[in-house]
């Protein structure tokens, strides 16, 4: 049996109305693609028995594997298990291994177990149980004809663990294919997608049929992904590396990372590699730069702290921005971010500091300072530089673009100190 085509079905009214953002399907698609599966489609449906059955009827003929997430909780609105039991003509039976795990789960959490929680151990007798070590709802694997239908919890942590520990090994064993898939990523910043595409079109046009190039833009960041498939691993790897190097050499000026990571991750890695430290002084970004930095494991080794000087009084008292500067050129100015960067680096005792001040909108603009005007300062032992930008989008987008731009400037400062 070969599992090649997959369909992902996410179940939940909360997904349809936008109350919760679906991250499961993106994660699942990435995992399946990495082992050679093609994602035929992704579908979101309501917690409705007839909708679940109809969706299965319509999609089973098109897939070797269907993965469903959601609707496996213990409450009445979680109907997926009962619906699948009916659909596949099964009978719910109590699984003693699952029941023992559920009891142990509540005991470790020092919580009282209710009769409703025991129902989590009831599974259809026509499925294979996929054990859930991170929660109480087990996954289920059904087979209809040549199609695997898998039901997983909607809680991301639980879904991901069942996928990694239980389902992916089964898929790999079923396939036993010699086909190899290799991905190589590079992250660029500072040049638009269309300009990059124009730059490398000769290289892209020379790619063989089994190697594809994908453009993945996000808030000013562009990830390029080369993907290749074939049975001769080393030959495929060398082919991809050759084209990768050609693109890398062409776009070196804009290169952030040679792996699929965020700019914040690249900053933390480079700071740690060169044993440098960072601090921030943020106004318009409200601490978002430091938040993205501290989201990265290991940031405590390189990041010391931040001053969120949203109010001008804080800029004056803590960051040495004089009242004269604030009254003459204003908080959104080159002079202000220079003073902010210098002061916070002195306060925190770091190798590098970055400061930001701007007008992100929709209000706050003047005749000389439009919405989207932002100044960013960067300070290190060689001196202080200030950069002026104009981001003409909505407040949320402007803020994210400021953060990414500031992080990229930090990378340039790291290069300056490490050369």
Describe the structure.
By secondary structure, the protein is an alpha/beta fold. The relative contact order is 0.08. The termini are far apart. α2 (24-34) packs parallel to α7, α3 (49-59) packs across α4 (80-87) and α11 runs parallel beside α16 (395-418). The radius of gyration is 26 Å and the shape is globular. The protein has a 6-stranded mixed beta sheet with strand order 2-1-3-8-7-6, sandwiched between helices. A 5-stranded mixed beta sheet has the order 14-13-15-16-17, sandwiched between helices. The protein contains 16 helices and 17 strands. The mean pLDDT is 94. The longest helix has 24 residues, at 395-418.
Topology diagram in text:
Layout: E1 5-11, H1 13-16, H2 24-34, E2 38-45, H3 49-59, E3 65-69, H4 80-87, E4 92-94, H5 96-108, H6 115-118, E5 122-124, E6 128-130, E7 139-144, E8 147-152, H7 156-175, E9 180-189, H8 193-199, H9 201-205, E10 211-218, E11 221-230, H10 233-250, E12 255-257, H11 263-273, E13 278-282, H12 288-294, E14 303-308, H13 312-319, H14 323-328, H15 334-348, E15 352-358, E16 373-380, E17 383-390, H16 395-418
Parallel strand pairs: 1-2, 1-3, 3-8, 13-14, 13-15
Antiparallel strand pairs: 4-5, 6-7, 7-8, 9-11, 9-12, 10-11, 15-16, 16-17
Helix pairs in contact: 2-7, 3-4, 11-16
Strand % is 25-35%
Distance between the ends:
55 Å
Strand order of the largest sheet: 2-1-3-8-7-6
Number of strands: 17
The averaged pLDDT comes out at 94
